[in-house]
Amino acid sequence: xxxxxxxxxxxDETQAAAIDAIVFDSKNYxxxxxxCLFVPVALNPRKYGEAERWFSSSYGNYCDNVNLCVxxxxxDYEKLRQYNLVYIGGGDxxxxxDQIEKSGFxxxxxxxxxxxxxxxxxxxGAIAMGKSVLTAPEDEETATLTTGINCIGDWSAYPHYDxxxxxxxxxxxxxxxxxxxAIPEESGVIYDGELIAVGAGVExxxxxx
Length: 209
What we know:
By secondary structure, the chain is of the alpha/beta class. It has a single domain (4-205), classed as Class I glutamine amidotransferase (GATase) domain (Rossmann fold). Helix content is 29%, strand content 20%. The protein has helices spanning 17-23, 48-59, 77-80, 93-103, 105-114, 124-129, 166-176, and strands spanning 4-8, 35-39, 65-68, 85-88, 118-122, 155-158, 179-182, 188-191, 195-198, 203-205. The strands form two sheets. The chain has a seven-stranded mixed beta sheet, sandwiched between helices. The chain has a three-stranded mixed beta sheet with strand order 6-7-10. Helix 7 links the parallel strand 6 (155-158) and strand 7. The two termini are 28 Å apart.
């Protein structure tokens, strides 16, 4: 894999400062230029405008170009490759995965990463990048399929993690037969062939332990 996947635990821009500083460091990108596609489709469509304003005010100054994508059906690989960073925001995991699965975006993202692209997934976006999406809250497990885009090795992601959830996540790893990386809201993970924790409290739960 030539590109990099970043996962955020679901905190706001203040909590997520450590992982954001890495994601939006232009030195990591070709020609020190960040061309970003912001994907907020995990949200209710009524909130797209609010999400766009939030992203612009929080991260717009770090990017040379930002475009909003609210319909994944409009994308193909030629359009996607115009960007070097895809930012998949949080919201309802089922809503997000339904569009990812039906639009073909699920096959575009691995190709984009293999060609050197960078992807950030926050909260529901982090879950989508993993092996199983059944780490989401039960009321968000509404997608047709239960598998994620599967771009972080043999791992699923569990955002919004705290120590009180340890036993729940341990049992979930056994039940899903999937390793799970659990990420607190103020932390993140980098995957470029192996998982690297950014910030405190990230825990790794193995399926057969």
